[in-house]
Structures are given as structure tokens and as C-alpha cells.
Amino acid sequence: MHVPFDFSGYRVLIAGGSKGIGRSIAMEFAEAGAAVSVCARNPDTLQTLDGDLSGFGGTVHTHACDLAEPDAIAAWIEAAAQTLGGIDVLVNNASGYGFDADDDASWLADFNVDLMAAVRASRRAMPYLERSSHASILHTSSIAALHPRVQGPPYAAMKAALSHYTGSQALRLAPKGIRVNAIAPGSVEFPDGIWDRVHKQDPSRYQATRDAIPFGRMGTPEDIAHVALFLASPLAGWITGQTLCVDGGQSLNG
What we know:
Blueprint: E1 11-15, H1 20-31, E2 35-40, H2 43-54, E3 60-64, H3 70-84, E4 89-92, H4 104-129, E5 136-140, H5 153-173, E6 179-185, H6 194-201, H7 203-211, H8 221-232, E7 243-246
Parallel strand pairs: 1-2, 1-4, 2-3, 4-5, 5-6, 6-7
Helix pairs in contact: 1-2, 1-8, 3-4, 4-5, 6-7
């Protein structure tokens, strides 16, 4: 699919971008002409992504990084900024995926990755974003943040905190000309993702979830990536502090 945006000259960083939504965001920014840096934990998937991104002909940088570690985030941001020559867009897409438990480990994983990694990456990228004429930050929240839920309370709570942080951060950074927005995806399916595994292991739950989506299908990573490109583009130049649900109407059903 042709990407209807031109990001030539943009330097885009994606935290948590080796598969699924993050990978799609990286690919579409690269296709639109941006220089792209991606970090993730798995060096093998990063190597594959590096090759795919290089096919678009722009500058590509990948970096193995545990986003729960502040020093690792700092090392990635600095390496990416040096390789790309600056930063225009920061996409915080990682998750600790505390879905199945209500124990301390799940809470801490989501606190460190879903929330604090976004805070720390934003803080570290700030000197570069302040020098950009079209700076923006994008966070990946979730429709799980919108309603109380039985499954995954740590994940939902930290995504809710991230959405709230989006507004506070946008208000604080507006005088610097830096826009901040979040995307709240609904149920998105991709190979070896959560809903792909549910589809194989618990087909009745998968079907019930899909039936609750008014558009009658699971989302795709590309559905989210298209919105990410729009929010980072000049077409969204007067949009800041918003969390946009991209869910085929799923959240309308509670």
C-alpha cells in the first residue's frame, strides 16, 4: 500500500518496534521517506527488521535494548540521535504485557515498560526534539485503559496512566512547539501476537471478542500505523494532548 505522507528529512525513533504494531509503524515511516531507529529486546528480530527497512533506501538504525532499564534507554536514544542526526518523532510503543496476573512482577513490568520507559525516553530525547521544527511524541496506550476489567489490571492501569501523562506532557511541552498524542488500539492481531495466540488456544474467547467489534474484524498493525503517521504529520499540526481510539468501534461496547 502506498503511504500518502512524505516524511523525507524526518528522524523517527520507535521504542518497541521489532514486530506487530511497532514494526508496522517503522516500516511505514521508512516507506514515507523517514530515517528510522528501532529498539527492542530481541536482536534476531531486529536484524530481520533492519534488512526490511533498508529496502526503502533511507538511514536505518536498530539497537537491542531492554526498555525496563533506564541506562539502556539512554544509550539507545543517544546512539539513534547520533546516527540519524537528530530526532523529530519519538514513538513509545513498548509494553510489559501484564495481562494474566495481579502480582508484583506484573505490576512492576508494566510500570517500568508501559509508563516509565515512555517518560524516560521522552526526557532523554527532549534536547533533540527541542531543536526540531516539527517535533512530536506518540504513545501507544490501549482501549483497556477506558474501563474496569478483570483481565490484566496492571496493563490497564498503566495504559490509563500513560493516557493521562499524554495530556500533562502535551500541556507542558506546547510552549516548546512539541506535540504529544497517544493511540489507543483495540484488539489487534498479528503473527505470534496476543490475539494470534488466543485464536489458536482459546477460539471461543477470540470469536466473542471479534463479535463485539462493530466492524466485525480484528485490527491490523497497519490500521494503527496509518494513524501514527497522520498524528506525526503536518496535517495534525493543531492536535495535541489527545488519546485517539483506533478500534473499529470496539470501545463503544464497553
